[in-house]
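re: ur question from yesterday

yeah so i grabbed the chain u mentioned. its 500 aa long if i counted rite. heres the sequnce exactly as i have it in my notes:
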Amino acid sequence: MPSFGYATFLSINATSIWGGIYPYLPAFCQTSLTTIVFYTVQIAAFWLAFCAAMALTWARPGLARGAHVLAFSAPLAFGPLMLVGAMYLESLALVLVVGAAVLVGVGSAGYLMSWQRVFASLDSARGNLALIKGTGFSALLYFFLCFIPTALTAYLIPLVLVPLAGLCLWIAARETDAQQPMFDDVPREHAVVYRNALRESFLPALSVGALGFCSGAIRFIAVTHQELLSTINIFSMFALLAVVSVFYATWRRHTIHVDLMSVFRVLFPIAATCLIVLPFAGSAFTTVGSGVTYACFMLACVLMMMHCGQISRDSGINPVLVFAFYGTITYFMQMCGYLVGYASGSAAVLGVEQLSFVALVALYVMLLIALVGRKVGKLHTNRLEFLMLTPKAPQKETSAEIAVTQAVRARDAGESSSDASAAPQPVDRVSKRCRRLSELYGLSSREAEVMELIVRGYSGPAIAEMLFISENTMRTHSKRIYAKLDIHKKQELLVLVDQM
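ran it thru and got these structure tokens back, copy pasting raw so excuse formatting
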């Protein structure tokens, strides 16, 4: 259900940001001015919704918990209907277009944050898997929508797809486990925890924002040259579907550890190459290069949602606030890219000068972020972890490893009996056993980290302080560890570790 509902929303969002029913409006609404006004207001409303969500979640976290699906479904449905109304009310056409842009922008942002809350509430494997499947299904659903007559699309989105997406979100929200520290947390009461998490998240958010800057500039070019709209979106959806499929196939057989800065360093040369070639390769490559660049940003956004979910689970902080923080930075830079596209001009014929200006500024921004973001923060939450979906049987110790383990045990036993004051050195042995135990039972990196500190004798408050999390989050991690290991107390954990 979450995957299908999220896919439905993404397909609605794809048609909205890349034209939606706007190109089907009468000619008097298709002027250059109204086109630019519509998309400028829409992207600004989208960004402002993230800013408002971050501020409200910090000051009034109860509002984020009590937000109803209708609060986002209504604007997302009425926005396209207002555009339909502009077909029949010529005197109010501009007002209705502006109002529709605001509603579509706010509704899309609200839906995105609500789905993030659902995915973050699930365990890491289920949440990430639902996100990946939903992204892939959305591409397929979008391709299906392309075959529907354009005259029908104007009514299909608000009357069928939006209610369906709202129903799926409502069901998923009802099944969400609200008894988690991330939902009961009051940000102002744990300001240090949030400050550390958000400070470490600034550079990863900038890396996604750099790709968003490129996508914003390309989006302006596309919406002012309607012949590129559908082709670019279809190509970017194809590229995204291919990457998601390869990623899923890899995840099934391998454990993947990655951080957003590393993803940016991989996507940077791809997007940079497309931008460099864009002004000189002709109209045929314009669609391909623009589609690949926008697909890079869409992929980064998928990983950003997964990363925000992991931060919420590991640190026990409000999922709406951390995602709104990322969204505020990312979509602000996308809006800046859109304005750069506006500054490049909106001539009827796409020229080398316009593409060269966009490419030059976008490359400068990406290079600047690459230089600033060379260092990755030290917190665990900077790394995104995908534990292998089909784990292999644990490998047996080699004879050399057994000999080393026995030698260490004999040495420790000898030291404890002959010289009580001599300090044992259990660090490598304990870490090695905890790592084997975590691999055997599928513990995440944060759970393995907490388990090792418990084994070493640290108290709950001490572990919470060391890992920059609240004590409630620390207790939640302990419960999950014990549940995965099928034990009930610390002594059983120590026995398990000693048997490794």
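noticed a couple things. The longest helix spans residues 191-223. also The chain has 20 helices and two strands.
anyway ttyl
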